[in-house]
Write a structure and sequence with these properties.
Elements: H1 21-28, H2 31-39, E1 50-51, E2 54-55, E3 59-66, H3 69-86, E4 90-97, H4 99-112, E5 118-121, H5 126-131, H6 145-149, H7 151-156, E6 158-159, E7 167-168, E8 174-183, H8 184-189, H9 201-211, E9 213-215, E10 218-221, H10 230-246, E11 250-252, E12 255-256, H11 261-275, H12 288-293, E13 299-303, H13 307-312, E14 319-322, E15 334-338, E16 341-344, H14 352-362, H15 365-375, E17 378-379, H16 399-404, E18 410-412, H17 418-424, H18 427-432, H19 438-455, H20 464-469
Parallel strand pairs: 3-4, 3-5, 15-18
Antiparallel strand pairs: 1-2, 5-16, 6-7, 8-13, 8-14, 8-15, 8-17, 9-10, 11-12
Helix pairs in contact: 3-15, 10-11, 17-19
């Protein structure tokens, strides 16, 4: 049987979501610790046995990370030694769990009373794990979400699984988006520079067709490789055609609109890229990022989690990023979405202080400065947006991420469970591979998706109606 929140609380009288300032200071060892947490960088010279000021001699935290090699190597080899040197007495036992297994393993371990102390989760797990009381609420003294992450994040993640006072249970490490990757070597070979890539679709299509090369029915060089990323391109095109509100595929939290006029136009544009402009190949079935990584594409449309792969699997390619073309050559560029977040899942009250200390480190500039580069995300901490490495002046492998992911330049749709994606998941193959009528396929997806939403309300959707009610989310303050 799952334990109650009372059984998981710090004391029978006080759960983390009801901690007073005095109770929290006692928990984490006083005002010196609170200052260290706020600064995200506890001093390296802290005395032995201190965990941000608390007695933590001999504590070993179990931390479950999803199995992403580049991030895990960085965390294991660099970040954890740094954290342990700053927090003598706390050791981290980092364990890898496949993302597909993580939610069920957390539910099982929670029921058995041996959940890990900290866990990285996918945002689509947040609803279930909160309702099943796997996640510990984050005291406001650990992080001021509205101040540090902005209004939209503060509003979206402030949730109440039981109808009581809302709390924060998980927060994003940052936000993803898609961008235009380019092969600098191929550009030079063809007599171009990255600045020669057009910013608007009309000119870009002419340019990309010119640098595309076919040998009979075989595509030997793609000017714009996007096979396998049609769904992401569709989302981008919607906003470019419809703007911040009409472009949002969620009209309200319980109504999707893939098959509206904007949606049909977006998919027709995608199919024209194949059939009229012939920039990529359907018949070969080669995923676009493989074509790009193998040096056979001048540009690639992909979400920027691909950055880590370019630095490891395809390290011989000299690459950079550009903002994808728009119909006007100006914003709005498209949509963005949240990255997986870290959580506190401990059931050991003696480890709670140390678990929150480690959690705050994982949401610190020191850790996110490394993590974000591998994941291709703009960090969730607003204070980092203007740092040289994460700003609009940060260079060809990052500046477009910084620009596009600003709230005034793209739209965050929130997130939904995998079951909704399953309900609408045949859009791409039905249109692209089976040649079904675009309008018919999209209307079928609307019917399936809206049927799911009718029986499964989603707090985590950020719909057009939500943005209309909160216009500040589309500003820099958002």
């Amino acid at each position: 049987m799952l334990q109650s929140k009372r059984n998981l609380s710090i004391s029978p009288q006080s759960a983390p979501n009801s901690l007073s300032r005095r109770q929290f200071l006692r928990l984490v060892g006083g005002t010196a610790t609170l200052a260290a947490l706020a600064a995200c960088t506890p001093p390296a010279e802290a005395p032995a046995g201190a965990a941000g000021g608390a007695e933590a001699e001999g504590i070993t935290l179990i931390a479950w990370f999803t199995d992403r090699r580049t991030i895990n190597e960085m965390t294991e080899q660099t970040a954890i030694p740094e954290f342990e040197s700053r927090n003598e007495g706390i050791k981290i036992d980092m364990q890898f769990v496949p993302e597909s297994e993580l939610q069920q393993k957390l539910l099982t371990s929670k029921a058995a009373g041996n959940a890990p102390d900290n866990s990285s989760i996918d945002e689509t797990f947040l609803d279930t794990l909160t309702k099943q009381e796997v996640l510990r609420p984050i005291p406001s003294e650990v992080i001021d979400v509205r101040e540090e992450m902005g209004q939209l994040t503060a509003d979206l993640y402030h949730i109440s699984p039981t109808g009581d006072s809302p709390e924060y249970y998980g927060l994003p490490n940052g936000v993803f988006s898609a961008a235009l990757y380019y092969n600098a070597g191929l550009l030079e070979e063809l007599g171009y520079t990255p600045d020669d890539i057009p910013n608007n679709w009309d000119d870009f299509l002419i340019w990309a067709k010119d640098v595309t090369e076919w040998d009979g029915d075989t595509l030997t060089r793609s000017g714009f490789s996007f096979y396998g990323n049609e769904g992401s391109l569709y989302s981008c095109l919607r906003h470019q055609l419809g703007g911040a509100l009409d472009g949002n595929v969620y009209e309200t939290k319980d109504k999707i609109r893939y098959g509206d006029e904007i949606g049909v136009q977006s998919w027709q544009f995608i199919m024209d890229l194949y059939n009229e402009h012939k920039l990529d190949s359907i018949n070969e079935g080669l995923v676009s990022r493989e074509r790009f990584g193998n040096g056979n594409a001048v540009t690639l449309y992909n979400w920027t989690w691909f950055n880590g792969f370019m630095d490891t699997q395809y390290s011989d390619i000299d690459w950079g990023l550009r903002l994808e073309p728009t119909f006007s050559g100006e914003p709005i560029y498209g949509n963005r979405g949240p990255d997986v977040g870290f959580t506190v899942t401990t059931q050991n009250e003696a480890n709670l202080e140390a678990a929150f200390t480690f959690y705050r480190y994982l949401l610190s500039p020191d850790y996110l400065a490394r993590y974000s580069k591998f994941r291709g995300i703009q960090p969730s901490l607003k204070a980092m947006w203007d740092e040289p490495d994460f700003s609009a002046e940060s260079g060809p492998q990052w500046a477009p991420i910084a620009i596009k992911n600003r709230p005034e330049n793209s739209v965050d749709w929130g997130f939904v469970p995998r079951e909704l994606y399953d309900a609408i998941g045949q859009i791409d193959p039905s249109i692209r591979d089976e040649g079904e009528d675009i309008t018919t396929v999209l209307q079928r997806a609307d019917n399936n998706g809206n049927e799911f939403l009718a029986g499964n309300p989603q707090w985590s959707i950020l719909s057009a109606a939500d943005y209309e009610a909160n216009p500040q989310w589309l500003t820099a303050a958002g």
